[in-house]
């Protein structure tokens, strides 16, 4: 269980006393969202985050008791690397989780970032054209404040409107070329859950809470945004 839940800026901030409680609660949050969505609509549209934080969480989902045939998966962002590069978010998720459960292959929508940022974003935007609202979006937060591949002061911030997926040409972390879902597309969701771990994220969390232009502040959800924190 979380040690503290605080409501601030239309978000619910959950602070955990240890990593085990953090991961168990995130696991339960995802499965509760899946159960409700499958009961309501017969499917569960989930957007996956990359990075280090969710790897053990994804592995824990291998043994979940759920109707895997109802799960439809998307990705929040991807690095422009070869398809099987170990640094791709899709490869991490496959190795930790997706290769071990019977989700139909046609329901796992990987970003074709190997095509490069412009073509990859265009292809993924077309894949998403017929997709209505996601059921749950998982996101993280970098020590520099980025979420998905939306970095502070990136070109995306000056755009008047966004397609569903946007090319990233100059990410300050390698690799510089990426594809990211836009803030508007990430916000078309019933629920959003941020998973944030590590003491190196404290300053980024503080900037976000203070409202000082964090990319994470652009993300909304129909039922509000939940933020799980283990910053020890």
Structure description:
By secondary structure, the protein is of the alpha/beta class. It has a single domain, classed as Rossmann fold, CATH 3.40.50. It has helices at 19-41, 55-60, 89-96, 117-128, 183-186, 202-210; strands at 4-8, 11-15, 44-48, 71-75, 77-79, 134-139, 165-168, 178-181, 189-197, 225-230. A seven-stranded mixed β-sheet has the order 1-2-10-9-6-3-4, covered by helices on one side. Strands 5-8-7 form a three-stranded antiparallel β-sheet.
Q: In sequence order, what are the helices and strands, one letter per element?
A: EEHEHEEHHEEEHEHE
Indicate the percent of residues in helices: 25-40%
Counting copies of identical and different chains, the oligomeric state is single chain
Secondary structure tally: strands: 10
- Ends distance: 16 Å
Uncertain residue ranges: none
SS element count, helices: 6
Structural classification: alpha/beta
Note the overall shape.
globular
Describe the sheet with the most strands: 7 strands, mixed
Strand arrangement within the widest β-sheet reads 1-2-10-9-6-3-4
CATH architecture: 3-Layer(aba) Sandwich
CATH names the topology as Rossmann fold
Task: Compute the CA-based radius of gyration.
Answer: 16 Å
CATH class: Alpha Beta
Features:
22% strand; Rossmann fold; alpha/beta; 232 residues
Strand and helix map with partners:
Blueprint: E1 4-8, E2 11-15, H1 19-41, E3 44-48, H2 55-60, E4 71-75, E5 77-79, H3 89-96, H4 117-128, E6 134-139, E7 165-168, E8 178-181, H5 183-186, E9 189-197, H6 202-210, E10 225-230
């Amino acid at each position: 269980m979380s040690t503290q839940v605080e409501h601030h800026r239309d978000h619910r901030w959950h602070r955990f006393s240890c990593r085990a409680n953090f991961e168990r609660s995130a696991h339960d949050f995802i499965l509760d969202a899946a159960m409700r969505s499958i009961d309501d609509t017969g499917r569960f549209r989930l957007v996956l985050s990359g990075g280090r934080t969710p790897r053990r969480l994804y592995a824990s989902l291998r043994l979940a008791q759920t109707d895997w045939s109802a799960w439809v998966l998307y990705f929040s962002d991807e690095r422009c690397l070869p398809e099987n590069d170990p640094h791709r978010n899709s490869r991490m998720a496959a190795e930790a989780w997706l290769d071990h459960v019977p989700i139909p292959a046609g329901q796992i929508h990987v970003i074709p970032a190997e095509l490069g940022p412009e073509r990859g974003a265009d292809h993924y935007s077309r894949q998403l054209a017929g997709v209505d609202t996601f059921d749950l979006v998982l996101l993280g937060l970098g020590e520099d404040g980025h979420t998905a591949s939306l970095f502070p002061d990136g070109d995306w911030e000056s755009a008047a409107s966004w397609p569903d997926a946007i090319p990233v040409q100059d990410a300050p972390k390698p690799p510089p070329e990426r594809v990211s879902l836009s803030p508007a597309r990430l916000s078309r969701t019933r629920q959003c859950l941020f998973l944030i771990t590590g003491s190196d994220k404290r300053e980024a969390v503080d900037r976000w809470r203070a409202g000082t232009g964090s990319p994470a502040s652009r993300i909304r959800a129909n039922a509000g945004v939940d933020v799980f924190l283990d910053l020890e």
